[in-house]
Amino acid sequence: MAILNVTPDSFSDGGRHSSADDALGEVERFIADGADIIDVGGESTRPGSSRVTVEEEIERVVPVVDAIAKRFDIPISVDTTKSEVAKRAIDAGAEIINDISGLRFDERIGEVVASSKSGLLLMHSPGEFETMHTQPAVADILAAVSEGFRASIAKAKSFGIADENIALDVGIGFGKTPEQNLELLAKLDRLVADFPLYPMLVGTSRKSFIGKLLGDAPAGERLIGSLATAAIAVWNGARIVRVHDVKQTAEAVKLVDAMMGQL
Ligand code: 7PM
Hints:
Blueprint: E1 2-5, H1 20-33, E2 38-41, H2 54-71, E3 76-79, H3 83-91, E4 96-99, H4 109-116, E5 119-123, H5 141-158, E6 166-169, H6 178-186, H7 188-194, E7 200-202, H8 208-213, H9 223-235, E8 240-241, H10 246-260
Parallel strand pairs: 1-2, 2-3, 3-4, 4-5, 5-6, 6-7, 7-8
Helix pairs in contact: 1-2, 2-3, 3-4, 9-10
This protein binds ligand 7PM.
């Protein structure tokens, strides 16, 4: 899954994709590099960022989704926690909603996904939008993520969303200590075994726990750390990795996949 930021304040690419034209060039490269899904995001969830309005988020996301869907034959997911954005994005051609709140912020995303038979990615995060990066650390992160998954899956199913349309994501970096992010990656196989019906997604790309472990490396110097974490995530059962550096990750994962074929 390739990350396409359409936020003006995006930390990783300086918000270069504010227009649909720029985004199309980037998507063309992502596809050539081996991406299977394009994840379009119009609201930054970085620590300390403020919310954008529904109108602003629709204005950023919908024209880009529309342009990608018209030009390319690749599934599009939309990183949003707002049901109105989800609805408009699906109407424009998105097939998956990536909800970092796991249906906690706006559960009407469940209605929108159910009625359109779209895919739903349920990510684990604690707290509210403003507090999710400053939550007190829990004692047992595996138990907390499992509990969050169970609640999100139950809510999704209450809207009539089929198991086959649900995927899970441990939510690396969302209200977790650097050690807890590492623990989730090291023990991911247990969560995968506990939720066998749902493909597991992991997003570590350029995240701050990697920078911290490498002596405060800035985002631009986290590629090799990101590749190491993506490789381990796949080895431990992740079926999808959400990344900025598609070509490099696809190569790393190809080697992991080949090794897994020898088990
Ligand atoms: C600033 C800081 C901007 C952090 C963006 C981010 C995930 C996600 C994000 C994830 C899923 C980023 C994050 N992370 N959606 N959206 N899983 N499903 O690094 O791990 O892209 S936002």
